[in-house]
Design brief:
Keywords: Repeat, WD repeat. The protein has about 160 residues and is mainly beta. It is built from 1 helix and 11 strands.
């Protein structure tokens, strides 16, 4: 009877997330190194085997999950990169930083496509693409949200 009670208790605790299932643990599949300061943001590139990271060291790096290493050139900025976002089609990369700027880059060529015409007056803390990739919304430490055209950089 005690065994049955323990089994029921363990099942209940697992359901309540108080006890990990036997043999479970969160372990990294791979660790990538290359940044020299805090990494503030990461994003998967949809439909690919790549991850993008933004760091306080003023760089954005693309990592290949298949090759377990950095790929392409490193994007260097004039200020710390705080946040990255990748469009749903995987073609565009948005970068925001402490300088209040929002930049749009091509994920394949790693070339800047457009920079927002105006910036926020403080750090860009969040970014999100529209589902059709024609707009990017940015949130800032200046307590504002702006929506930008990804083709012209104009505030909408």
């Amino acid at each position: 009877m005690a065994i049955r009670a323990d089994t029921a208790r363990n099942a209940y605790l697992r359901l309540r997330r108080r006890l990990k299932p036997p043999g479970s643990s969160l372990r990294p599949l791979q660790t990538y190194s290359g940044h020299s300061a805090t990494i503030w943001s990461i994003a998967f590139v949809p439909n690919s085997e790549h991850v993008v990271s933004a760091s306080e060291d003023r760089t954005i790096r693309v990592w290949s999950l298949a090759e377990c290493r950095g790929v392409g050139r490193v994007i260097k900025r004039g200020s710390s990169a705080e946040v990255v976002a990748v469009s749903e089609d995987g073609n565009l990369l948005a970068i925001g930083g402490v300088d209040g700027k929002v930049e749009i880059w091509d994920t394949k060529s790693l070339q800047k496509v457009v920079e927002a015409k105006e910036g926020h007056s403080s750090w860009v803390t969040s970014l999100s693409f529209s589902s059709d990739s024609t707009r990017i919304a940015s949130g800032s430490d200046d307590c504002s949200v702006s929506v930008w055209s990804t083709s012209t950089g104009e505030r909408l």
